[in-house]
Specification:
Low-confidence stretches: 82-101
Largest sheet: 2 strands, antiparallel
Distance between the termini: 64 Å
Oligomer: single chain
Number of strands: 2
CATH architecture of the largest domain: Orthogonal Bundle
CATH class of the largest domain: Mainly Alpha
Mean pLDDT: 82
Shape: globular
Structural class: mainly alpha
Length: 163
């Protein structure tokens, strides 16, 4: 009888079920293209299967998945070097839960990918600065500065005073 591999105490199917939303959200925010986001999503979970990392707990598992997803997004963006307008996404299936999420997501998609990534992880996934720094591979102070600048950019997207 084959032994089932567990990831932080979860079977692979349970990992996908529990973290699909978070991984899909990161991929869609980064790539703004449904097809590329699907590729990134699949690559992330394939890497979990093939690498079989040693993960201590569910938090470590989620951080690992999001870090891999972020790296996959960077790889896809580097490889493709193409831009997709926001209008092309409107007919795609939505990964968002509510109209508020969609509104915030629309605003985030107006930003540069690095700022979008950090603001998404902070506001949508509720990560703290140190956790974001670990996920995106930057120093905590850099993340703080990017959060501040990103907030200013969001204000200008919404038509607020960005001073």
């Amino acid at each position: 009888m084959a032994k089932t591999t567990l990831y932080a105490g979860l079977k692979y199917e349970d990992v996908v079920r529990e973290y699909a939303q978070a991984v899909a959200g990161v991929c869609m925010m980064q790539l703004q293209n449904h097809t590329d986001a699907e590729d990134c999503f699949q690559n992330t979970f394939v890497k979990l299967l093939t690498n079989q990392p040693s993960l201590q707990d569910k938090n470590h598992l989620k951080n690992w998945l999001l870090r891999v997803a972020v790296n996959e997004c960077h790889n896809i963006r580097t490889k493709n070097r193409r831009t997709v307008s926001i209008e092309t996404i409107t007919d795609e299936p939505s990964y968002y839960q509510s109209d508020d999420d969609l509104d915030v997501s629309w605003a985030l998609m107006q930003l540069k990918p690095d700022y979008r990534e950090i603001l998404y992880l902070h506001y949508c996934e509720r990560y703290k600065v140190d956790e974001i720094a670990q996920i995106v591979g930057r120093k905590p102070n850099t993340v703080k500065v990017m959060l501040k600048r990103g907030r200013e950019m969001l204000k200008s997207v919404y038509g607020g005073d960005a001073q």
